[in-house]
Specification:
Oligomer: single chain
Strand content: under 5%
Number of strands: 0
Helix content: 55-70%
């Protein structure tokens, strides 16, 4: 049943993308972030994302929808980063596996650029945020409930065969999305909606803790610190966060505390020592090779050459050392420049959006984007999600939001419903609302 439901949804998205390619962008984002096909039985191998992406590109060409091809600093740096990864590809130490991952990364980054061409309105930004929240929130809320039900005795894992399959990766994705949930909550008027979102955010935090990821714990701490700093009443905010933190941590079992304590005694933890050895390998490789080693370098043959301890083979589990080893120091510089720019663009939204009531939502968005980026910067130091879509979707929200603000869109943009209603449904609904003549 779920297979048929997914196929019906994808078919609808494909048809709509041909006429309204921005709907295709949202559908592509949903498929790539949530991977709903991995929750089905028989359609996992079908190229559903490719179908949506192809329809979106066709719609981009044939429709008269508004498009924005302007290049800001983030677009330019992303294009340069893509060009650098393409330039380094022929110099990859393991070309065949590197080529496969390069194709995947190029598809992701290309669709990020397409998204910035097709999305332009407040409605688009709100819908994109909802797609991101629902895509990760599905696993986070479920994982939080699971953690509460089991007392944290079992780890929370992500969907199989995806970027976020591991406990560390799903935890970082959850941490990034929690501030976006807070942004949506700030826009809500109904009390029941705000309360529901609060419950969901608490469950998301519980799921991140339930992953038993030490990086996630540090990311949550960084995120909470930025949230507290952004708050108006810091004393009340501090009390609320301390009480909530104590309540969440009191659920976790003794083995969770033992694992978190290894942060202080990392010299005795084999996993931590493996990561440090991988970081040393990435450093040695980047010093030796201008173009880095290419994708998929975390193998015994390369550790034998560059690893401080050649026999200790381990993934980098760090966005920084991952990019450094794979793309060299130039690639790392481009990666850091890109997300530093996004952080400061979000800061401009936070400050400039306060100027008028119509743009206050952008101030909220900019503030929460900075909180998400803080979580990504800290949690990413211990987790491998350098090329995944979600952080780059934060870039889309910041860039499109800044365009909306700079062009004074609030002066002429109509307030539209957040949920798109197909024309034939809207027509039938309007007929039912008509008052019969006397």
């Amino acid at each position: 049943m779920r297979d048929l439901a997914l196929l019906a949804i994808v078919a609808w998205i494909v048809l709509q993308a041909l006429k309204r390619p921005w709907i295709g962008v949202l559908g592509w984002t949903w498929m790539s972030i949530m991977n709903p096909h991995q929750l089905t039985w028989s359609v996992r191998s079908l190229p559903l994302a490719a179908a949506i992406g192809g329809a979106t590109l066709i719609g981009l060409i044939i429709t008269k929808d508004r498009r924005d091809y302007s290049l800001g600093r983030e677009n330019i740096v992303l294009l340069i980063f893509m060009a650098w990864m393409t330039l380094t590809l022929p110099f990859s130490m393991l070309f065949n596996p590197s080529f496969e991952l390069w194709k995947r990364v190029m598809k992701i980054d290309f669709m990020i650029l397409v998204s910035m061409v097709l999305l332009y309105s407040k409605r688009h930004l709100m819908l994109l945020t909802w797609v991101l929240v629902i895509s990760i929130g599905f696993f986070g809320v479920k994982g939080g409930a699971f953690t509460l039900a089991t007392g944290g005795s079992y780890r929370v894992w992500g969907p199989e065969n995806t970027y976020i399959e591991g406990n560390n990766e799903i935890a970082l994705a959850i941490v990034i999305v929690i501030p976006l949930m807070r942004f949506l909550q700030l826009q809500m008027q109904a009390k029941w909606a705000r309360v529901t979102m609060t419950v969901c955010m608490v469950l998301m935090a519980m799921a991140a803790l339930g992953s038993h990821s030490r990086g996630a714990l540090l990311a949550i701490a960084a995120m909470a610190l930025v949230l507290w700093w952004r708050g108006k009443n810091k004393m009340v905010g501090a009390v609320v966060m301390v009480v909530l933190g104590i309540a969440l941590l009191s659920v976790m079992p003794a083995e969770w505390w033992e694992r978190m304590n290894t942060i202080k005694t990392y010299q005795q933890d084999d996993s931590a020592l493996g990561r440090i050895n991988a970081w040393g390998m990435a450093w040695n490789l980047a010093k030796d090779r201008l173009f880095g080693g290419g994708f998929m370098i975390w193998t015994a043959s390369i550790f034998a050459i560059y690893g401080p301890e050649p026999d200790r083979v381990h993934a980098a589990h760090s966005i920084y050392f991952m990019v450094m080893g794979e793309q060299g120091f130039v690639g790392l510089l481009l990666f850091l420049t890109l997300f530093t720019m996004v952080f400061f663009t979000a800061g401009k939204l936070r400050i400039q959006g306060k100027a008028r009531p119509q743009t206050q939502w952008l101030s909220d968005l900019g503030s929460m984007l900075q909180v998400s980026l803080a979580g990504y910067a800290v949690g990413g130091a211990f987790l491998s999600l350098s090329y995944w879509d979600l952080p780059y979707n934060l870039l889309i929200l910041a860039v499109v939001g800044k365009r909306w603000l700079d062009r004074k869109e609030w002066l002429h943009e109509k307030e539209e419903p957040v949920v798109y209603v197909p024309a034939f449904i809207k027509k039938r609904f309007d007929k039912k609302k008509r008052v019969p003549s006397l």
